[in-house]
Amino acid sequence: MKYETVIGLEIHAQVLSESKIFCGCSTKVGQQPNSHTCPVCLAMPGSLPVLNRKVVDYTIKTGLAINSTINKFSQFARKNYFYPDLPKGYQISQYEEPIVGEGYIMIDLPEGQTKRIGIERIHMEEDAGKSIHGSSIGKPGSSYIDLNRAGTPLMEIVSRPDMRGPEEAKAYLEKIKSILEYLEVCDCNMEEGSLRCDVNISLRPVGQEKLGTKAEIKNMNSFRNVGRAIEYEMKRQAQILDEGGSVVQETRLYDPEKNITVSMRSKEEAHDYRYFPEPDLVPVNLTDEWIDALRGTLPELPDAKKERFVQQYGIPVYDAGVLTSDKYVADYYEAAVKTHNNGKIISNWVMGDVLRVLKERKQDIREFDIPAQYIGKMVKMIDDKLISGKIAKTVFEHMCEEPKDPEIIVKEKGLVQVVDEGAIRELLQKVLDENPGPVEQYRNGEQKVMGFLVGQSMKASKGKANPELVNKLLRELLG
Fold this sequence. Notes:
40% helix; 15 helices; alpha+beta; 3-stranded antiparallel beta sheet; Arc Repressor Mutant, subunit A; single chain; 3 domains; 15 strands
């Protein structure tokens, strides 16, 4: 490998607050353009911002959850730039004095490895509005501004340049998303833009300490696109360096249809924004009591839940990692296990069939119409030998069509497993009589035909015969 890739992410998470960061306007999305605005978010002369305490609390909680220093003194600043959807001509953000300082998270890598990714800071800021170009709404040649988003509260989570490839960047982004969901401080809806990220990426010769010139890819809103954009940018920069050129520091946009990044503008430096302290807002002064009170409200976080699942339910570390990466999948699994305590088999069903159906339906598990208790009940019926694993697959498909209690489905469809030895022996004898060739082969030492005979037996019983009994009795009958 000739070059080492160096990646840092800036994640913009919309704080789950009913009102904006500096005024009382609603943050609800999908409303009539410019209907959720007021003199403050429209930047009318004489209007003054008032800080939303919930935004402060949620940012502190996020800092605590990612092992960060909470700064007792922090200050807002004006980030000056002109853009049509920025009504004030500046964005209220934080610069030299952010509310959250250095921290870290651990990410999971293949083959059971972990890696520590440093967090540089988290700061609070307001979102800009939205530009709507006429070509997208059938009015080419015109542009429109919707300021409903202007003033929406954001946390910007800035990582250290500690990631070395697209897989690490995706793992980091997924871990931050998971933590935010567990904290319930952001709904993490990437399609609606409540979780977005900018990717800073550079290449340097392997072994070199000095960082290369970076490009920033703006406003990525899906895990898949983050990975694809990084892969493309790695190839683009490597080609430039191989040809003896120099990478230009710039901001780029990713085009998912063409799978390329395109130049947007030269990359600004901090001094280009003319940062200075926001005169209309007093500094934020935190007390130990304030911070400790919020620390006491932290929920069980993904890493702790993962460890508990391994210990409490006896499932492999991998299973626990998959189940706890999504708060709501973890809740679903735990509700199923409370119905019937067989952690590993229920883990297999949730990770396999449940997540498969959700992927096919493009659903979140919160939209899944099969209650977790039904999965637990179905596994209990397998363990009680009322149904076989194969019959359970049929029961599950029936539940997907109509989410009924599995006990009712089994009774209605006549799917109860046959465990009567006499009935099964009679059925097996018939199968052997109908297949003299394979029977002779088996008795001549060809053990592999046993699989065929078992299959024929299960087929004859329409899957209802107990598989263990079928195997046992077949061997007896075959001598």
